[in-house]
Amino acid sequence: MSLAVTNKRTFSANAVENKTEFAAKTIYDVDNFNLWYGNDQALYDVNLAIPENQVTAIIGPSGCGKSTFIKSLNRMVELIPSVKISGNIRYAGGDIFSPGYKVEQLRTDVGMVFQNPNPFPKSIYENIAYGPKIHGIRKKNVLDEIVAKSLKGAALWDEVKDRVQENAFGLSGGQQQRLCLARCLAIEPDVILMDEPTSSLDPIATAKVEELVQSLKRDYSIVIVTHNMQQAARISDKTAFFLNGDVIEFSRTDKLFSNPEDKRTEDYIDGRFG
Ligand SMILES: Nc1ncnc2c1ncn2[C@@H]1O[C@H](COP(=O)(O)OP(=O)(O)OP(=O)(O)O)[C@@H](O)[C@H]1O
């Protein structure tokens, strides 16, 4: 991946929105961020200040750059060799694309849950203990504690406490997704990125994950990509509406859905396209 960082603007705490609207601390400051796959530009001058300990939803029609954006926040996009970027993304004040930035630390601080649950073909216990073991934790009593705490944090403990040694593939889809969330919590991140985490779940499992997201924001900053506007309206504090790689509107969720400033946002939330 080549880094064509040209933007030298100084860190701005709140790039787009009206500062009086929201007093939360910013965890990510995205500043004039552009991204290309080869010659095709997927993100255009994205400016967003993502608040700490809140839920930020990313909405927009298929192909508008939602996944590309969220995968930029943990530098997963650089796994695609043709990707080029300009502008910058600051996480906790540090430019994550600057030379020498410790990407391993970023991926510890920033966990991710994907569209389809992807547990390892191992026991429930091992799925969760895996990350802490990689970080050098060996003592069984410590690992036991982490496994229990993470499963409780993901609201799965009561359902699986008597069968943590069983294979994770024996869980339902909704349980597997909460297991993936527990796996993410086990490495004690500060941020959780979620790329359409409920798209493969039924309404009951979806409701459980939504409830969980609400309770987790006390301890974590959450960024969630969703196709489901009702979901964004239900669980997020702020929403960014993306269209063709541009951020059209970014504001408090209640405001964006009740009183959008841009006609394109209004048309999208009214279901006129996408
Ligand atoms: N690996 C890739 N190589 C080339 N182009 C890509 C790649 N991934 C995504 N794109 C392109 O970048 C643009 C944005 O795609 P992205 O997946 O980020 O959109 P999205 O809003 O998440 O879409 P969806 O809602 O359908 O998942 C699209 O035009 C897509 O074709």
From TrEMBL:
InterPro entries: AAA+_ATPase, ABC_transporter-like_ATP-bd, ABC_transporter-like_CS, P-loop_NTPase, PstB-like
Pfam families with a match to the protein in the record: ABC_tran
UniProt keyword annotations, A-Z: ATP-binding, Nucleotide-binding, Transport
Ranges where the ABC transporter domain occurs: 27-269
GO molecular-function terms, A-Z: ATP binding
Keyword Transport: yes
PANTHER family per the UniProt record, alphabetical: ABC TRANSPORTER I FAMILY MEMBER 17
Protein name (database record): Phosphate ABC transporter ATP-binding protein
Native source species: Lentibacillus halophilus
